[in-house]
Automatic annotation (TrEMBL):
Gene3D superfamilies: Glycogen Phosphorylase B. This is Glycosyltransferase subfamily 4-like N-terminal domain-containing protein. It comes from the Bacteria. The keyword Repeat does not apply.
Amino acid sequence: MRVFHIISGLGPGGAEHMLWRLIAATPGISHAVFSLTGTGVLSDRLRMAGANLVNDERDRGKFRDLASLRNRIVAYAPDVIQGWMYHGNLAAQLMRSAAPHAALLWNVRQSLTDRRLTKPTTRTVIRALAFLSRAPDAIIYNADSAADDHEALGFVRDKRVILPNGFDTALFKPDLGHRRTIRAELGLSDDQLAIGFVARFDPWKNHEGFFQMAARVAERHPAAAFVLAGKGMEWSNPALVALIGADLRDRVTLLGDRRDVPAINAALDIACNVSHGEGFPNAVGEAMACELPCMVTPVGASADLVGDCGILAKSPRSDDLFAAMTAMLAQSTEMRMALGIAARQRIVNHFSIEVVAKRYLNLYALAADRSAHV
């Protein structure tokens, strides 16, 4: 089986990480990856996982050289062309004639809870995909809510396939050694309660709501400390710092974009995701695998992922975030630890990368077989 993946970029986002984990979990498949924006921070990890990155240093702009992409697809002769994210899906659609007997799959990676937060150019691509949505053999969504949102915009319903994200439970796990090391690095004492939020700086992620909630929590809980990691989570980011009240700043640690997220999670006591919109939140699944109780907003697949192993806020509004965090903090340490243990077991049973990768392989085989006989 030969699969040619076309993705918008290879930055540190959730879709990119899912692609990396999928490739690493399917060594029996030949994978080629083309990034529309050239190489990125995940390029080396993809190569180490066994992917053939067909980009070169000239491939730096979206749709810069479709003729070059077409030639690479023709040379690779894939059984499946797999688009990832909106621009990757559109490029995959445009390239179908380069491998007319290959199956074509799109992969939609987010919900559209608040369309005002989507860039105008991206909204145009979404409308184009809705018009073209009868063309692929299947449209993969990572959550029912993401499928619902896009089908409301005109995406064809009978192409829907739900495949959740999968997590490496051997990498993301509780680790007492990492906990001690990272808490010492951050200056966190044993009696401090570390509340974490791992997300890039982006309006969708709702850092404004997080810090409004955190300010109220800090007033009532002197032991609470707030640890944030992700691209843009730095004191040198003025737009971020403007959201953090002066009275809160000595309770906040900003770590920037870290590659040791399993170790960071091990140092936390509670994990948050307060986004306005998600597809399937990787950061939540990773935190759960590390035995962290999670407080999340009711967007994307967050509620389905957490189940009864965490606390669901009513909305991303700061009042609702504060109410949900208050409920979490009202529980005893033992109760929160029990939630965390149950959370990891839920990930192992239902959302491990091994389980999800088998579902991708089944879809690839079925789609390729059908396409070959058309």
